[in-house]
Write a structure and sequence with these properties.
about 130 residues, mainly beta, Lipocalin, 9 strands
Amino acid sequence: MKMMMIAVVGLVALAGTAMADPLEGLWRTTADDNGYSGLIEVAPCGAALCGTLIRSFDASGAEASSPNIGRQIISETVARGGGEYRGKVWAPDRDRTYNSRLMLDGDSLAVSGCVLGICRDGGTWTRAN
């Protein structure tokens, strides 16, 4: 009986690992209007996915301080199927939150969003290791 319980616990732990969403992990953004880019950590937040800025880089690629470290860049994001995600994305360079469309293709993430009919291409982010 004890061995069976250990086996069940092990299978549950493996199932949780296998069920991680493909969007989870670290993503390097493209440069914004000011030339800054960031490292975003995407993880579950409730029933959705959220992405938090954990590092910032200046136009030369050097790490830079930012008052936005720790701020959610991606929020309320859910999978729609076929690599598509919908939710919200906040753009620090314009201090606007857009209704986002994220398209995941392997280690590339095409980011775009709209607010009040005005749309913006957020470029293609790359998975960071």
